Amino acid sequence: xxxxxxxxxxxxxxxxxxxxxxxxxxxxxxxxxxxxxxxxxxxxxxxxxxxxxxxxxxxxxxxxxxxxxxxxxxxxxxxxxxxxxxxxxxxxxxxxxxxxxxxxxxxxxxxxxxxxxxxxxxxxxxxxxxxxxxxxxxxxxxxxxxxxxxxxxxxxxxxxxxxxxxxxxxxxxxxxxxxxxxxxxxxxxxxxxxxxxxxxxxxxxxxxxxxxxxxxxxxxxxxxxxxxxxxxxxxxxxxxxxxxxxxxxxxxxxxxxxxxxxxxxxxxxxxxxxxxxxxxxxxxxxxxxxxxxxxxxxxxxxxxxxxxxxxxxxxxxxxxxxxxxxxxxxxxxxxxxxxxxxxxxxxxxxxxxxxxxxxxxxxxxxxxxxxxxxx
Length: 375
What we know:
Layout: H1 9-18, H2 27-43, E1 60-66, E2 72-79, H3 85-95, E3 104-107, E4 129-136, E5 140-142, H4 143-162, H5 171-176, H6 181-203, E6 211-213, H7 214-235, H8 246-272, H9 302-318, H10 321-336, H11 338-352
Protein backbone atom coordinates (compact mmCIF):
# COMPACT_ATOMS: atom_id res chain seq x y z
CA UNK A 1 0.00 0.00 0.00
CA UNK A 2 1.42 3.29 -1.07
CA UNK A 3 1.77 6.01 1.53
CA UNK A 4 0.45 9.47 0.56
CA UNK A 5 3.07 12.17 0.80
CA UNK A 6 2.14 15.62 2.13
CA UNK A 7 3.03 18.42 -0.23
CA UNK A 8 5.69 20.79 0.91
CA UNK A 9 4.98 24.40 1.86
CA UNK A 10 6.16 25.86 -1.47
CA UNK A 11 3.97 23.40 -3.40
CA UNK A 12 0.88 24.33 -1.25
CA UNK A 13 1.53 27.98 -1.92
CA UNK A 14 1.71 27.40 -5.66
CA UNK A 15 -1.52 25.34 -5.64
CA UNK A 16 -3.44 28.06 -3.70
CA UNK A 17 -2.14 30.74 -6.01
CA UNK A 18 -3.16 28.64 -9.05
CA UNK A 19 -6.74 28.25 -7.67
CA UNK A 20 -7.06 31.95 -6.76
CA UNK A 21 -6.79 31.47 -2.94
CA UNK A 22 -5.26 34.00 -0.52
CA UNK A 23 -1.91 33.28 0.86
CA UNK A 24 -1.90 32.75 4.65
CA UNK A 25 0.21 35.06 6.85
CA UNK A 26 3.29 33.77 8.51
CA UNK A 27 3.39 33.26 12.30
CA UNK A 28 5.48 36.40 12.87
CA UNK A 29 3.17 38.53 10.72
CA UNK A 30 0.07 37.37 12.58
CA UNK A 31 1.74 38.03 15.96
CA UNK A 32 2.68 41.58 14.91
CA UNK A 33 -0.87 42.24 13.70
CA UNK A 34 -2.29 40.95 16.99
CA UNK A 35 -0.02 43.22 19.03
CA UNK A 36 -0.97 46.23 16.91
CA UNK A 37 -4.68 45.49 17.40
CA UNK A 38 -4.26 45.22 21.15
CA UNK A 39 -2.39 48.55 21.21
CA UNK A 40 -5.16 50.35 19.30
CA UNK A 41 -7.88 48.89 21.51
CA UNK A 42 -6.09 49.78 24.75
CA UNK A 43 -5.39 53.35 23.62
CA UNK A 44 -9.10 54.10 23.16
CA UNK A 45 -10.29 57.42 21.85
CA UNK A 46 -7.60 59.96 21.27
CA UNK A 47 -8.11 62.85 23.68
CA UNK A 48 -7.90 66.47 22.65
CA UNK A 49 -4.77 68.25 23.73
CA UNK A 50 -5.37 70.56 26.72
CA UNK A 51 -3.66 73.35 24.84
CA UNK A 52 -6.45 73.30 22.28
CA UNK A 53 -9.20 73.80 24.87
CA UNK A 54 -10.52 77.32 25.23
CA UNK A 55 -10.78 78.76 28.77
CA UNK A 56 -14.27 79.84 29.85
CA UNK A 57 -13.14 81.84 32.93
CA UNK A 58 -14.23 85.49 32.83
CA UNK A 59 -11.82 87.88 34.47
CA UNK A 60 -12.74 91.27 35.91
CA UNK A 61 -10.94 94.57 35.84
CA UNK A 62 -11.07 96.57 39.05
CA UNK A 63 -10.64 100.31 38.68
CA UNK A 64 -9.33 102.04 41.82
CA UNK A 65 -10.45 105.68 42.05
CA UNK A 66 -9.50 108.24 44.70
CA UNK A 67 -12.57 109.12 46.74
CA UNK A 68 -11.64 112.81 47.04
CA UNK A 69 -10.25 113.78 43.63
CA UNK A 70 -12.14 111.08 41.65
CA UNK A 71 -8.93 110.46 39.72
CA UNK A 72 -7.99 106.96 38.67
CA UNK A 73 -5.12 105.54 40.72
CA UNK A 74 -4.65 102.22 38.93
CA UNK A 75 -6.46 99.30 37.31
CA UNK A 76 -6.14 95.82 38.75
CA UNK A 77 -6.63 93.46 35.83
CA UNK A 78 -7.19 89.70 35.52
CA UNK A 79 -9.13 89.40 38.75
CA UNK A 80 -10.87 85.97 38.98
CA UNK A 81 -14.56 85.95 39.97
CA UNK A 82 -13.79 84.05 43.18
CA UNK A 83 -11.39 86.77 44.37
CA UNK A 84 -12.29 88.81 47.44
CA UNK A 85 -11.75 92.41 48.43
CA UNK A 86 -8.70 91.29 50.40
CA UNK A 87 -7.20 89.78 47.22
CA UNK A 88 -7.78 93.06 45.41
CA UNK A 89 -6.04 94.93 48.25
CA UNK A 90 -3.00 92.68 47.97
CA UNK A 91 -2.79 93.23 44.20
CA UNK A 92 -3.29 96.96 44.74
CA UNK A 93 -0.41 96.89 47.25
CA UNK A 94 1.87 95.34 44.61
CA UNK A 95 1.08 98.23 42.28
CA UNK A 96 1.23 100.91 44.99
CA UNK A 97 3.57 99.65 47.75
CA UNK A 98 3.01 102.71 49.96
CA UNK A 99 -0.52 101.48 50.79
CA UNK A 100 -0.49 98.13 52.55
CA UNK A 101 -3.76 96.13 52.69
CA UNK A 102 -4.82 97.08 56.24
CA UNK A 103 -4.47 100.76 55.35
CA UNK A 104 -6.71 100.55 52.28
CA UNK A 105 -10.44 101.26 52.55
CA UNK A 106 -12.52 100.40 49.47
CA UNK A 107 -16.08 101.58 48.84
CA UNK A 108 -18.55 100.74 46.10
CA UNK A 109 -19.99 104.24 46.33
CA UNK A 110 -18.34 107.46 47.45
CA UNK A 111 -20.51 107.86 50.53
CA UNK A 112 -21.06 104.15 51.07
CA UNK A 113 -19.65 101.91 53.80
CA UNK A 114 -16.26 100.28 53.55
CA UNK A 115 -16.41 96.83 51.97
CA UNK A 116 -15.48 93.86 54.10
CA UNK A 117 -12.44 91.81 53.08
CA UNK A 118 -14.55 88.66 52.69
CA UNK A 119 -16.86 90.08 49.98
CA UNK A 120 -16.32 88.51 46.56
CA UNK A 121 -15.80 90.61 43.46
CA UNK A 122 -18.41 88.63 41.55
CA UNK A 123 -21.14 89.76 43.95
CA UNK A 124 -20.29 93.41 43.25
CA UNK A 125 -19.84 93.25 39.49
CA UNK A 126 -22.54 94.33 37.03
CA UNK A 127 -20.08 94.30 34.13
CA UNK A 128 -16.52 93.22 33.46
CA UNK A 129 -15.22 96.49 34.98
CA UNK A 130 -15.73 97.17 38.69
CA UNK A 131 -15.09 100.67 40.04
CA UNK A 132 -14.06 100.98 43.70
CA UNK A 133 -13.33 104.17 45.63
CA UNK A 134 -10.12 104.27 47.66
CA UNK A 135 -9.68 105.89 51.09
CA UNK A 136 -6.41 106.00 52.99
CA UNK A 137 -7.24 104.81 56.53
CA UNK A 138 -3.89 105.93 57.91
CA UNK A 139 -1.37 103.89 59.83
CA UNK A 140 -2.91 100.75 61.32
CA UNK A 141 -2.02 98.49 64.24
CA UNK A 142 -3.25 95.02 65.13
CA UNK A 143 -5.68 94.50 68.00
CA UNK A 144 -3.17 92.47 70.00
CA UNK A 145 -0.60 95.26 69.76
CA UNK A 146 -3.31 97.76 70.63
CA UNK A 147 -4.25 96.12 73.95
CA UNK A 148 -0.73 95.08 74.92
CA UNK A 149 0.44 98.67 74.57
CA UNK A 150 -2.49 100.05 76.54
CA UNK A 151 -2.02 97.61 79.44
CA UNK A 152 1.77 97.55 79.63
CA UNK A 153 2.01 101.30 80.18
CA UNK A 154 -0.03 101.49 83.43
CA UNK A 155 1.86 98.51 84.85
CA UNK A 156 5.26 100.18 84.39
CA UNK A 157 4.11 103.70 85.23
CA UNK A 158 2.68 102.69 88.59
CA UNK A 159 5.90 100.90 89.54
CA UNK A 160 7.89 104.07 88.75
CA UNK A 161 5.81 106.01 91.26
CA UNK A 162 5.93 103.14 93.75
CA UNK A 163 9.75 103.23 93.98
CA UNK A 164 9.52 107.00 94.60
CA UNK A 165 11.96 108.30 92.02
CA UNK A 166 13.91 111.39 92.98
CA UNK A 167 12.59 113.18 89.90
CA UNK A 168 9.02 112.77 91.23
CA UNK A 169 9.23 113.00 95.03
CA UNK A 170 11.54 114.70 97.50
CA UNK A 171 14.04 112.13 98.70
CA UNK A 172 14.41 113.59 102.20
CA UNK A 173 10.66 113.46 102.73
CA UNK A 174 10.46 109.96 101.24
CA UNK A 175 13.02 108.60 103.74
CA UNK A 176 11.40 110.34 106.69
CA UNK A 177 7.80 109.13 106.20
CA UNK A 178 6.83 105.53 106.80
CA UNK A 179 4.84 103.70 104.11
CA UNK A 180 1.50 102.41 105.29
CA UNK A 181 0.77 98.72 104.43
CA UNK A 182 -2.14 99.79 102.20
CA UNK A 183 0.40 101.39 99.84
CA UNK A 184 2.03 98.01 99.24
CA UNK A 185 -1.36 96.34 98.95
CA UNK A 186 -2.49 98.92 96.40
CA UNK A 187 0.61 98.28 94.30
CA UNK A 188 -0.05 94.55 94.42
CA UNK A 189 -3.71 94.95 93.39
CA UNK A 190 -2.91 97.40 90.60
CA UNK A 191 -0.18 95.16 89.14
CA UNK A 192 -2.43 92.11 89.46
CA UNK A 193 -5.17 93.88 87.52
CA UNK A 194 -3.00 94.74 84.53
CA UNK A 195 -1.04 91.50 84.54
CA UNK A 196 -4.37 89.71 84.27
CA UNK A 197 -5.28 91.93 81.32
CA UNK A 198 -1.98 91.16 79.59
CA UNK A 199 -2.26 87.40 80.09
CA UNK A 200 -5.87 87.35 78.89
CA UNK A 201 -4.88 89.34 75.82
CA UNK A 202 -2.26 86.73 74.95
CA UNK A 203 -4.02 83.50 75.92
CA UNK A 204 -7.78 84.05 76.36
CA UNK A 205 -9.17 86.69 74.05
CA UNK A 206 -9.67 85.81 70.38
CA UNK A 207 -9.00 88.75 68.12
CA UNK A 208 -9.78 88.96 64.45
CA UNK A 209 -7.13 89.74 61.88
CA UNK A 210 -8.52 93.25 61.60
CA UNK A 211 -6.70 96.46 62.46
CA UNK A 212 -7.47 99.79 64.05
CA UNK A 213 -6.05 103.25 63.29
CA UNK A 214 -2.93 104.23 65.22
CA UNK A 215 -4.67 107.35 66.54
CA UNK A 216 -7.15 105.16 68.43
CA UNK A 217 -4.28 103.46 70.24
CA UNK A 218 -2.79 106.84 71.10
CA UNK A 219 -6.11 107.99 72.58
CA UNK A 220 -6.39 104.81 74.64
CA UNK A 221 -2.85 105.14 75.92
CA UNK A 222 -3.43 108.76 76.94
CA UNK A 223 -6.53 107.70 78.87
CA UNK A 224 -5.00 104.69 80.66
CA UNK A 225 -1.52 106.07 81.19
CA UNK A 226 -2.73 109.51 82.29
CA UNK A 227 -5.17 108.30 84.94
CA UNK A 228 -2.64 105.76 86.20
CA UNK A 229 -0.10 108.53 86.72
CA UNK A 230 -2.68 110.63 88.56
CA UNK A 231 -3.72 107.81 90.91
CA UNK A 232 -0.20 106.50 91.51
CA UNK A 233 1.16 109.95 92.38
CA UNK A 234 -1.17 110.41 95.35
CA UNK A 235 -1.19 106.84 96.64
CA UNK A 236 2.64 106.65 96.71
CA UNK A 237 3.16 110.21 97.93
CA UNK A 238 5.18 110.49 101.17
CA UNK A 239 2.30 112.48 102.76
CA UNK A 240 -0.35 109.91 101.88
CA UNK A 241 -2.77 109.24 104.77
CA UNK A 242 -4.34 105.79 105.31
CA UNK A 243 -8.12 105.14 105.10
CA UNK A 244 -10.36 106.54 107.83
CA UNK A 245 -11.77 103.21 109.00
CA UNK A 246 -8.42 101.54 109.16
CA UNK A 247 -7.75 97.84 108.73
CA UNK A 248 -11.41 96.84 108.41
CA UNK A 249 -12.03 99.16 105.44
CA UNK A 250 -8.88 98.00 103.68
CA UNK A 251 -9.59 94.29 104.23
CA UNK A 252 -13.19 94.33 102.99
CA UNK A 253 -12.34 96.47 99.97
CA UNK A 254 -9.36 94.28 99.05
CA UNK A 255 -11.52 91.16 99.30
CA UNK A 256 -14.15 92.74 97.04
CA UNK A 257 -11.41 93.72 94.58
CA UNK A 258 -10.08 90.16 94.36
CA UNK A 259 -13.60 88.73 93.89
CA UNK A 260 -14.31 91.16 91.06
CA UNK A 261 -10.98 90.31 89.41
CA UNK A 262 -11.79 86.59 89.60
CA UNK A 263 -15.28 87.18 88.24
CA UNK A 264 -13.91 89.26 85.37
CA UNK A 265 -11.51 86.47 84.44
CA UNK A 266 -14.17 83.74 84.46
CA UNK A 267 -16.54 85.87 82.37
CA UNK A 268 -13.81 86.51 79.79
CA UNK A 269 -13.11 82.78 79.58
CA UNK A 270 -16.85 82.10 79.07
CA UNK A 271 -17.05 84.75 76.35
CA UNK A 272 -14.03 83.26 74.58
CA UNK A 273 -15.76 79.86 74.30
CA UNK A 274 -19.14 80.82 72.87
CA UNK A 275 -19.82 77.46 71.21
CA UNK A 276 -22.57 74.95 71.78
CA UNK A 277 -22.12 71.32 72.79
CA UNK A 278 -21.49 70.30 69.18
CA UNK A 279 -18.76 72.91 68.90
CA UNK A 280 -19.87 74.25 65.52
CA UNK A 281 -22.03 77.25 66.38
CA UNK A 282 -21.61 80.37 68.44
CA UNK A 283 -24.08 80.61 71.29
CA UNK A 284 -24.75 83.11 74.04
CA UNK A 285 -22.90 82.26 77.28
CA UNK A 286 -25.16 80.96 79.99
CA UNK A 287 -24.59 80.63 83.75
CA UNK A 288 -22.82 77.46 84.85
CA UNK A 289 -21.96 75.87 88.18
CA UNK A 290 -19.38 78.65 88.60
CA UNK A 291 -21.05 81.32 90.80
CA UNK A 292 -19.14 84.11 89.06
CA UNK A 293 -21.07 83.40 85.83
CA UNK A 294 -24.48 83.82 87.46
CA UNK A 295 -24.33 87.52 86.65
CA UNK A 296 -25.34 86.56 83.09
CA UNK A 297 -28.87 86.30 84.48
CA UNK A 298 -28.93 90.03 85.17
CA UNK A 299 -26.70 91.84 82.67
CA UNK A 300 -25.48 91.31 79.14
CA UNK A 301 -21.76 91.99 79.64
CA UNK A 302 -20.80 91.02 83.21
CA UNK A 303 -17.13 91.56 82.50
CA UNK A 304 -17.73 95.32 82.46
CA UNK A 305 -19.72 95.07 85.66
CA UNK A 306 -16.85 93.27 87.37
CA UNK A 307 -14.40 95.81 85.94
CA UNK A 308 -16.35 98.68 87.49
CA UNK A 309 -16.56 96.76 90.77
CA UNK A 310 -12.79 96.29 90.83
CA UNK A 311 -12.08 99.99 90.54
CA UNK A 312 -14.73 100.97 93.07
CA UNK A 313 -13.18 98.54 95.54
CA UNK A 314 -9.71 99.88 94.78
CA UNK A 315 -10.90 103.44 95.39
CA UNK A 316 -12.51 102.50 98.73
CA UNK A 317 -9.41 100.57 99.77
CA UNK A 318 -7.03 103.46 99.13
CA UNK A 319 -9.51 106.28 99.88
CA UNK A 320 -8.01 108.64 97.33
CA UNK A 321 -9.79 111.53 95.64
CA UNK A 322 -8.00 110.94 92.27
CA UNK A 323 -9.27 107.38 92.29
CA UNK A 324 -12.85 108.57 92.66
CA UNK A 325 -12.33 111.46 90.23
CA UNK A 326 -10.68 109.29 87.60
CA UNK A 327 -13.62 106.90 87.62
CA UNK A 328 -16.12 109.76 87.43
CA UNK A 329 -14.13 111.15 84.51
CA UNK A 330 -14.18 107.70 82.92
CA UNK A 331 -17.97 107.85 82.48
CA UNK A 332 -18.01 110.60 79.81
CA UNK A 333 -14.93 109.05 78.21
CA UNK A 334 -16.78 105.76 77.97
CA UNK A 335 -19.51 107.53 76.02
CA UNK A 336 -17.02 108.26 73.22
CA UNK A 337 -14.63 105.31 73.30
CA UNK A 338 -15.21 102.07 75.22
CA UNK A 339 -18.86 103.02 75.66
CA UNK A 340 -19.40 102.86 71.93
CA UNK A 341 -17.67 99.47 71.94
CA UNK A 342 -20.02 98.33 74.71
CA UNK A 343 -23.05 99.43 72.70
CA UNK A 344 -21.73 97.54 69.67
CA UNK A 345 -21.27 94.39 71.76
CA UNK A 346 -24.79 94.56 73.16
CA UNK A 347 -26.28 95.35 69.74
CA UNK A 348 -24.47 92.35 68.26
CA UNK A 349 -25.80 90.15 71.06
CA UNK A 350 -29.34 91.45 70.57
CA UNK A 351 -29.11 90.68 66.86
CA UNK A 352 -27.82 87.12 67.19
CA UNK A 353 -29.24 86.06 70.55
CA UNK A 354 -32.67 87.69 70.62
CA UNK A 355 -34.28 84.94 72.69
CA UNK A 356 -32.01 85.68 75.67
CA UNK A 357 -32.57 89.41 76.01
CA UNK A 358 -36.10 89.55 77.44
CA UNK A 359 -34.56 88.09 80.60
CA UNK A 360 -31.62 90.51 80.68
CA UNK A 361 -31.39 94.22 81.19
CA UNK A 362 -29.37 96.61 79.06
CA UNK A 363 -26.21 98.21 80.36
CA UNK A 364 -26.56 101.95 80.24
CA UNK A 365 -23.04 103.35 80.01
CA UNK A 366 -24.24 106.95 80.27
CA UNK A 367 -25.36 106.43 83.89
CA UNK A 368 -23.09 103.73 85.24
CA UNK A 369 -20.94 101.56 82.99
CA UNK A 370 -22.01 97.96 82.85
CA UNK A 371 -24.56 97.98 85.64
CA UNK A 372 -28.05 96.52 85.42
CA UNK A 373 -29.98 99.77 85.02
CA UNK A 374 -32.45 98.78 82.35
CA UNK A 375 -34.01 100.98 79.68
